[in-house]
Amino acid sequence: MTNTAEIIEPREGHREVLESVVVRFAGDSGDGMQLTGSQFTQSTALAGNDLATFPDFPAEIRAPTGTTFGVSAFQINFGARRVMTAGDQPDVLVAMNSAALKVNIGNLRRGGLIILDSGTFKERDLRKAGYDTNPLEDGTLDPYQVVEIDVSKMVVESVKEFGLGTRDALRCKNMWLLGLVYWLYGRDRQPSIDWLNAKFKSKPEVAAANVAALNAGHAYGETVELPGEILGYTVGPAKIDSGLYRNVAGAEALAWGLAAGTQLAELPMFFGSYPITPASSLLHTLARLKQFGITTFQAEDEIAAVCAAIGASYAGQIGVTSSSGPGIALKTEAIGLAIMVELPLVIVNSQRAGPSTGMPTKTEQSDLYQAVYGRNADSPLVVLAANGPGDCFYTAIEAVRLATKFMTPVMLLTDGYIANASEPWMIPDFSSFEKFPVKQHTEAEGFEPYNRDADTLARVWAVPGTPGLQHRVGGIEKDFTSGHISYDADNHQRMTDVRHAKINGVANFIPEQTVDQGEAGGKLAIIGWGSTYGPISRAVSNMREQGKDVAHIHLRHIWPLPRNLGDLLSSYDTVICPEMNNGQLSTVLRAEYLIDVKPLTKVEGMPFKIREIEAAIEAVLGA
Amino acid sequence: MNQQAPIAYKPKDFATDQEVRWCPGCGDYAILKGVQKALADIGTAPENVVFVSGIGCAARFPYYIETYGFHTIHGRAPAVATGVKLANPDLDVWLVSGDGDAMSIGGNHMMHLLRRNIDVNYLIFNNEIYGLTKGQYSPTSRLGTRSPSTPAGSIDAPVSACGLALGAGGRFVARGIDRGQKELPGILQRAHAHKGASFVEILQNCIVYNDGVFDGVVDKSVAGEAQIHVKHGEPLRFGADNAKGLRFNAKAMRLEVVTVGEDGVSEDDIIVHDQTNLALAQMLAAMDRPDFPVAVGVIYDNPADVTYDQAVKAQNESAKADAKITSIDQLLRSGATWQVD
Predict the structure, then answer these.
(1) Looking at residue A26, what DSSP letter applies?
(2) Measured between alpha carbons, how far is residue A231 from residues A114, A226, A238, A582, A601 in Å?
(3) B63 and A485: CB-CB below 8 Å?
């Protein structure tokens, strides 16, 4: 029988009700952990919980099986209340093998639940995982509730009838454990069954085996008594704003935002990119959105990627390029060219831990200096930062708007966490978005390539193919209006000043900074940018519930800064800036406003924990 | 009918009001003249022509051509030109580069532009020296070139521009000479007519830092013996009275110089130039003084069925035609969604 779940009576008893839970799935990178995680995420969203996820990959694509450096994990925090982060500590660890246990047990809440495959704790497995003694026997697991199941054996048994070899049978292990976790939280299996059948349409026996494994895991939960008399849990639906929702990952939302931006600007887009972790998913997503007037180009290197985007901008499209820190470094000279010739360009930086190659799969926010200051000479551009997966959509649109309105490069900062994490997202009504159609210059009378708009100081955009507007631009300093080469001293001063004034003037066309939680003025403000939004937001709301006078301010516009920000920050006794770097925004704010912003820094390749920010608040305002 | 007769352009229609600032006597003047004549002969409206350049003396070129022009950064002109052409395949896109710009700092982009086969015309002004930075040896400098950075002579082997272009998969490779005004505009016209990436090496004299480096090839007194003008379908003959020719020595698998009428060599022994023959093109491109004449003209012209820019356009169009999701609202609602009330 394939669907034993339907013929066995569930045990008596009631499910325990929980406010929120953090579950971490961990296994070999070939075990399908990300896939398992995304299926669980989908079912959790459908159950009405709020959630946040954190996929945590190893750098190795397929490290030797059973080793600690091949462990891949997926963490999800879901609850009956608003969930702002993927969770400080897992409550539940699902370990597919002994190496996954070894890597992940350190962060598990004491008293938390471990579900593990005891079939992977043989002497050879333990040696590969680096265990001297068997953690199942040496007391390592005493502080936790442990569910030991020989999953490997049970999976092979449950899919026997489909004639798969042992190796293929074992590949269904993730579905068996997913089935068990579905039972644990009372989830509907049907969407995953439908998904499996669709995914393995051409291999019906593989689909059937996976479904059988899923059902077998579920049935196991229903029939076998788990230690601690676990009868499953219920996490009620969260109170979230009404609307139509979906799950969205940052890279996906960013791609959609760029596609949306190109529609609002009513211009085609050219996306030039070179593969780099964690930015490649943007290229992959956009490559499938060509119907929106998007050309994607995988260049020979980072420099060619940005240069091709600049060439496309010169020819009248919206040039976009993307990378991560080291790749952005390579693009820097070309970004200077785009500043000099004043063409629209969007540069997406999915930041990762550095310097140099650093830790490509680990998140960090340490490219803020690079974005704001990191070019030769006085070369200002616009810098924006998305604060989470869904926000990437809006920030990408803003990047396209500002790049075309001001004829300037715009750097959009995300990070590895935002790019890969997913969250439920209320789908906006796109017809309500304000269009910003771009007008290219066609009038030959009085044309000079550096004629500027009086309000924005943006130069005219005259594209090849337009009769009578033939002109030359380039990286050599140009005459203030004609664009001819000029080495004139006064002209260089004037051009430097106008490039500076143009970018500063962007502040007049962006919203004033608002306070996310709390009011202007008070004892303490926490100012953040980018993916620290979740933990800061939750920490501040927890502290405010305790009556503490703390506000949360979160920047989208990093450069230029919102015009009221200096006054706003001055209205607090203390300002703390948590960031996943050594204090970069803090330095910028200090330099701009002469305010004693206190950095709260962390560079561990992991997002902030809520508790870490709460502790910083308590250190100022008392516990 | 509102059809207009094509405008007849003159070379001066492609001259700008900018004062040309190359050193007096620089080979670039002659090339500029040749290009302006070629553009007039081709007859594309100036607004539909774009010149893209990198950095170096040659890279100043766009300022002197009355079309659209983009003077970019060192070595990256092929990448910028790629973006221009992909954004608007209807434009005639020309690249102007030097030996250092194209084959040193920009070597990677040159290789990929050629193998991708984007329909642009890529002109390399090869003077075998860095001019703008005041005379350092370049990747095409002969072994032993004395320069400020190699006072005892350069010790690294030079690259052959045409050989590199063929190796990278270039499907149109030609060589011209700055002062070869009779021939150069025609070569440029052929480059333009070729669908796909066209590569033209132009031997160019740097009067200040490398004066006379090509004298052994271009000086009138030796030109007849030192150059072979290759033409598709015609025997590969050169020298006084066209007495000499190239013969293929099958045993040694190489070309050899022979004289018709001597040592039993007849006209039939001379190879007839086939511009679609890659092996022949590679041998012709590699010929150098003193053992061989230098090949001038269209060495290789073998267009592919489709160019990269046309293939990109076709994919974009079929994506549009086949798309199931055609609006942003649809896109945002694709996949699993749920309603919260």
Answers:
(1) E
(2) 15, 8, 22, 46, 42
(3) yes
Assess B236–A contact: CB distance below 8 Å, yes or no: no
Q: At B168, is the secondary structure helix, strand, or coil?
A: coil
Among A407, A344, A334, A413, smallest CA distance to A375 is for A334
Three-class secondary structure of residue A475 per DSSP: coil
Q: What is the predicted pLDDT for the residue at A3?
A: 33
Instruction: Tell me the C-alpha distance between A104 and A172, whole Å.
Output: 22
Interface predicted TM-score (ipTM) over 0.85:
yes
CA nearest A485 in B: which residue? B63
Helix then strand then coil, in percent of chain A rounded to 5, is 40, 20, 40
Residue B232 CB: number of other CB atoms within 10 A? Answer: 15
In whole angstroms, what is the distance from residue A86 CA to residue A149 CA?
Answer: 27
- What is the distance between the alpha carbons of residues A51 and A54, in angstroms, rounded to a whole number? 10
Q: Span B307-322, mean pLDDT? A: 98
For chain A, count helices (H), then strands (E).
20, 22
3 state DSSP class of B177: strand
CA distance A169 to A368: 47
B19-61 pLDDT, tens digit per residue, is: 999 999 999 999 999 999 999 999 999 999 999 999 999 999 9
| Tokens matching residue B297 | 């003209």
- Amino acid code (one letter) for A97: N
3 state DSSP class of A390: coil
CA A145/CA B49 separation, integer angstroms: 73
DSSP string computed for B45-102: -GGGEEEEE-SSSGGGGGGGBSSEEEE--TT-HHHHHHHHHHH-TTSEEEEEEEHHII
pTM of this structure: 0.93
Q: Is B39 exposed, middle or buried (0-12, 13-18, 19+ CB in 10 A)?
A: buried
Instruction: List, as ranges, residues 60-79 from B with C-beta within 8 Å of A.
Output: 62-63, 66-73, 76, 78-79
Question: What is the three-class DSSP state of A489?
Answer: helix
B69 to chain A: which residues are within 8 Å by CB? 470-474
Distance between CA atoms of A60 and A27, rounded to whole angstroms? 13
Whose structure tokens read 């020595």? B249
Q: What are phi and psi of A21, to 5 degrees?
A: -140, 145
Q: Which residues of B touch A473 (CB under 8 A)?
A: 69-71
- CB-based contact A318:A265 (threshold 8 Å): yes
Mutate to test the interface with B, among A44, A314, A433 (most CBs of B within 10 A): A314
Asked if the C-beta of B329 comes within 8 angstroms of chain A's C-beta atoms, the answer is yes
Q: Which residue has the tokens 């609850």?
A: A79
**Residue with token string 């501040």:** A540
- Number of helices (H) and strands (E), helices first, in chain B? 11, 12
- Who contacts A374 (Cβ-Cβ below 8 Å, separation ≥6)? A328, A329, A332, A367
Q: How far apart are CA B238 and CA B236, in angstroms?
A: 7
Tens digits of residue pLDDT in A300-344: 999 999 999 999 999 999 999 999 999 999 999 999 999 999 999
The per-residue pLDDT of chain A, averaged, comes to 94
pLDDT of residue A438: 97
**Identity of the amino acid at B230:** V
Residues in Cβ contact with A547 at an 8 Å cutoff, skipping those fewer than 6 apart: none
B72, B331, B339 ranked by CB distance to A244: nearest: B339
Q: Which residue has the tokens 């194209």?
A: B102
